[in-house]
Structure formats: structure tokens, C-alpha cells
């Protein structure tokens, strides 16, 4: 289910929407698409895409190794966007970026399981891990979609300090790097090896196109 909802639906949306956005963009302003990514792509998936686990069904179990299947499907989103933007597979007047809202309380299985297990202790813990309201989480997307300095920038990632309940504005970086995870080997944000691996990007793109071919051709 998560493979379909989190990943395949996202890819279909981008593939179908990009031409329409391009057609309606003006000469003075590029069209923008922003994907809802996740910090779990590094903190849980550990920067490794497991192709076998990617398509597994079942609910996201709290504490499950790698955060499967949730973090794997979100990592696939990041990798896919990196591939299509680095290979210029979207119209030149359309940008595609990824934004992480942080730990926003929703109805997904992980949060609901945690609430049941922790009871009255849930809210203090939610605050300690940087839990955010939907309003606060949406700020990252609004920035990527509306900020003037994002004009022409594609293949970027922003999380605005997801480890805190309040926003910590950081400069969006290439999708390979995570601004809130401390400095990596290059002095920028910590690297995500799966996103940096061209072979992984190519394989995911090819397999995804094969799965969606009947739907994208309609």
C-alpha cells in the first residue's frame, strides 16, 4: 500500500502534472512542483534503498528495522526526483524539489501506535522529539513553492530544522545532503549515499517506468 500511495502515486503525479505546469508557466516565472519528503530517508532508511523491501505490504511498525516500508518509499521519492532533475527529464521551465515538514502529527499508523502505547506520556515525548503542527510543517513547502530566491532552482531539499518544534530556517541544499543532520564529509549537510549513487537512481527510474507504463501512456 505505501509503495503505491507514497511512491507510485507521487511519480504519476509528477509525470502527469509537469507538462501541464510547463504549458501554463510564463516567460517570467517557472512552474514549481514540490514533493513531501521525509527525514526518515536518512535517520531510518540509513541512506540505503532496499529494492526488495520497497514493495512490501503491511503497516509501518514502530521501531521496525529501517522504518520499512514507510522510510523506503519516501527514500524512493527523493531518489526519483534527484534522477529526473539531474537528467533533465522534466520540462526546462518546471522545477521539482523536495521538502520535509518534520515530525507532523497525522493519522498514520506510526503515530497512532505510539499514542496507544505511551498514553498520557505521548505529548511530552512528542514535544521533545520536535513534533510539529501541520501549520508549522507546511512552512517548508510554502517556501519552496513561493520564495523568490527559489526561482530556477531544481533538485533541492529543505527541512527547516525538523528536529525542533519551531522552524529553523536553513538554506535548501542539493537532494544528496541533509541540512539538519550535521556536517558530512564535504562540510555540507550529511550525505545520503543512496541518492548520490547514479546506479541506484537509474535502476529505480527504469523499474518504476516499467511498472507505470500502462498508466502513464493513457
The number of E-state strands comes to 6
Discrete helix count: 9
Spatial order of strands in the largest sheet: 1-2-3-4
Distance between the termini: 22 Å
Q: In which range does the helix fraction lie?
A: 40-55%
H/E element order: HEHHHEHHHEEEEHH
Q: Provide the low-confidence segments as ranges.
A: none
Rg value? 17 Å
Main sheet makeup: 4 strands, mixed
Class inferred from helices and paired strands: alpha/beta
Give the overall pLDDT as a whole number: 87
What is the 3D shape? globular
Tag the structure with descriptive keywords.
218 residues; alpha/beta; four-stranded mixed sheet; two-stranded antiparallel ribbon; 12% strand
Describe the protein in words:
This protein has 218 residues and is an alpha/beta fold. Helix content is 46%, strand content 12%. The protein contains nine helices and six strands, in the order H-E-H-H-H-E-H-H-H-E-E-E-E-H-H. A four-stranded mixed sheet has the order 1-2-3-4, sandwiched between helices. Strands 5-6 form a two-stranded antiparallel ribbon. Strand 5 and strand 6 form a beta hairpin. The longest helix has 23 residues, at 2-24.
